[in-house]
Amino acid sequence: MVNQLIWHGHANFQIITSELNILIDPWFEGNPSAKIGSEELQRVDLVLVTHDHGDHLGQAVEICKRTGAHLGTIVEVAGKCRSLGVPHDQILNGIGFNIGGTVDFKNIQVTMAQAHHSSEQGSCIGFIISLPRGGPCMYHAGDTGIFSSMQLWGELYDIDLAILPIGGVFTMDSRQAALACKLLNCKKAVPMHWGSFPVLEQNTEKFKKELEKTAPQTELIVMNPGDRISI
Among the four residues 63, 137, 145, 170, which has the most C-beta atoms within 10 Å? Predict the structure, then answer.
């Protein structure tokens, strides 16, 4: 089976491999861009959460409790989710993990990266996900502004696909995201966190122009909510 990526709008992505069904920031109910509800997901193996704002934590707790999925997130958010009913043995590393740390889960590796943003508990984070058997290395930046040490992650990892916010106001805008691609030296980029609310950037045209100027080596992949691509 070819690895697949589905965008459910905002920062909500689903990664499907031959063995695993992974969700990142599973905000379905209340998400104006989502085409399906969380109840339609019958099998989920791993849920990754970048921070505990409602539009990112979303239905993570309910999905884990209903499907038995494991939860990967920073320690403080893991504790919050455990207090809301996620069993201890479904939390990666028992208590979560932290920035710079890597955990293994059924042949994939998940590394936690920093993000510059606010959160109710803990710190906002991103994830670098390395799929097995020569599969792609993906970076989901979470909600963040640009930061110079993105370059270090680009040196440490051969990033095939970077998923970056471009909406502005709460995160990077298109200009910052294009420079982020240069720092990360990523092969491809999927923009996220746009179009969900009126205050955010409403299309990807500015990002396309900025990318052509700043990081022409990075291929732009534009997804619309509900789209599925092979990775």
Answer: 63
